[in-house]
Amino acid sequence: MAPMGIRLSPLGIGVFCLLGVGVLYHVYSGFLTGKFAAFFLGDGGAGQGQPVDLRELLAVSIRAAQLGGLEVKRVRETNSLNEKAKGKTREGAEDKMTRGDLLSNRKMYHLIKNAFPAVLVNTEEQVDADEESVPWVPNIPDEIKDIIKTSKEVAPESITVWIDPLDATYEYTENLINYITTMVCIAVNGKPIIGVIHKPFTSYTAWAMVDGGSNVKRRSSYNEKTPSFIVSRSHSGQVKEVTRQTFGNKTEIISAGGAGYKVLSLLDITENKQEIADVYIHVTFIKKWDICAGNALLNALGGHMTTLNGEEIIYTGSDGNEGGLLASIGMDHGALVEKLAEKLPTIQKTHK
Fold it and tell me: Are 320 and 283 in contact (CB under 8 A)?
């Protein structure tokens, strides 16, 4: 008997080839949409589900604050503010927005999202729909490595980034440039871990990572007996009255712009030595992007930032903090909270 052979019809060959091409296309397209595509599209390994290196995120945050600061400075120096009113604050002051706010916001937001697309970014100003190419080449400067010796990775879904593209906008429109900062804060599971406060007009940047290190050193001494208090000059509410009623009529009170600046004043990082303070207090509603970076910075240096009744501020969910603000370093923070405790019912009733 002649050996049995297998005969393939032209139709069968065609179907087989089509199936093979389909399989190859499926595998190839899956490969492209996975890590291979992430590599060529600049994900840098920080895509959805990839752990985030906090040292690199600190480096990105510093760069973002500095890039935003360049926009803020350029707009102010060319006097091209295009100033607008967004509305009124709860204290009745005009809430302003400028071209500096918007351009800084765009640079800062897109750099962070391009570098770490999987992290949540909350920012003060609305981000335009068109993506801006603000590239990030993965790099951790030696300045950071020299202070923070080891890396720490966290899941991207645990991170919330808070951006303030221009703190003290009201003072910015008045050309009171000493008060102006750009800020980035990294909260992990709601706790402020990384804080960056940049001063655009002096090119100074303060940064810190909790349990990591900082390029800032705390002051050698604070006045616990008769502390000086720094308060808002444009969103003060009744803070001066509350402070003097609580800590004495002769209490020194300093009015200044910008939450970031006020935290720096606690650390003696200010050109005006008359604005160095021991305690920062705020009795009304305040946005979290205004305070998160300062909170992280103080925490990293052994200080505190809490609500008026001593509760930790959680940096997830709502973008506002309703409980007032008390910040100190080198002081008995608990004693300050206790002194305020008897005044809290009055404060809360007044500012509901």
Answer: no
